[in-house]
Design a protein that fits this description.
Elements lengths: L1 E4 L2 E3 L6 H10 L9 E9 L9 E3 L2 E4 L2 H9 L2 H9 L5 E10 L9 E8 L6 H16 L4 E9 L4 E8 L9 E9 L9 E2 L2
Antiparallel strand pairs: 1-5, 1-6, 2-4, 3-4, 3-5, 3-10, 6-8, 6-11, 7-9, 7-10, 8-9
C-alpha cells in the first residue's frame, strides 16, 4: 500500500462551493481507476471545525505504484495543475490498514494527524505503535476505515481515518468528505504491512 496527498490552501475569502462543484463534476473519473485502492476528496473551510484555512486536500491509498504513476503522469493530474498550479505531492509508505465497524456506511468526515517519529526510539516500536493506533481508530464507533503511513524522508507518521459521523474529540485535522472513489478498496492489504 502506498499513500499520496496534496493540499491546496486557498484564500480566506475563497468560495468553497467552487470546490464542491468541481468534485461533483469530476469526482467520478477515478471511480474505476486501475491500481487505486481509494481516493477521498477532502475539504475544510476556514472557521468550521476549528480549521484556520480553506483547503482542498485529496488523500489516496494506492494498491499499485503503476496506478499512481499513471494518475500523475498520464494526464488526470494535469487538469488540477492547470487550474490551481502544480501542488507539492506527498507520498508515504503504508504501515497498516483496517476496515472499521461502519465500513458499509458512507464516509462523511475524515481526520488526518501527522506526528514526527521521535528521535531515540526503536523504529520497530514506533511502527508497531502506529499499527496499534490504526486498530484503535478502526474500533471506534462510526469508523469506516483507518490507515497509518510513514514518510521516511521527514520521519513523520500519518494517521488517516474516515467516519460515518463527525467524530467527537477528533485528534487531528477534520475534513468534510465530498466524494470517495474506491475501485480497489477491497484489495487494500489489511493489518500490518511488513
Amino acid at each position: 500500500m502506498h499513500a499520496m496527498e496534496y493540499a491546496l490552501t486557498l484564500p480566506a475569502d475563497y468560495e468553497m462551493e467552487v470546490i464542491r462543484a468541481r468534485v461533483a463534476r469530476v469526482g467520478h473519473v477515478l471511480d474505476d481507476w486501475e491500481g487505486l485502492g481509494l481516493k477521498t476528496y477532502l475539504m475544510r473551510e476556514r472557521g468550521v471545525n476549528g480549521s484556520p484555512v480553506n483547503q482542498y486536500a485529496p488523500f489516496y491509498l494506492w494498491n499499485t505504484v503503476e496506478g499512481m504513476n499513471t494518475f500523475l503522469w498520464g494526464g488526470a493530474f494535469q487538469g488540477l495543475s492547470d487550474d490551481f498550479g502544480r501542488p507539492s505531492v506527498r507520498q508515504w509508505t503504508g504501515l497498516s490498514y483496517e476496515e472499521g465497524g461502519a465500513a458499509g456506511s458512507p464516509a462523511r468526515w475524515a481526520v488526518r494527524r501527522c506526528q514526527p517519529v521521535p528521535q531515540g526510539v526503536e523504529l520497530a516500536e514506533a511502527m508497531a505503535g502506529a499499527v496499534g493506533e490504526t486498530e484503535r481508530l478502526a474500533g471506534q464507533d462510526g469508523a469506516v476505515l483507518a490507515a497509518a503511513v510513514v514518510d521516511t524522508a521527514r520521519w513523520e507518521l500519518g494517521h488517516f481515518s474516515l467516519w460515518a459521523h463527525q467524530p467527537s474529540g477528533a485528534d487531528g485535522e477534520v475534513f468534510e468528505v465530498l466524494h470517495v472513489s474506491a475501485p480497489g478498496r477491497g484489495r487494500l492489504p489489511r493489518g500490518r504491512q511488513w
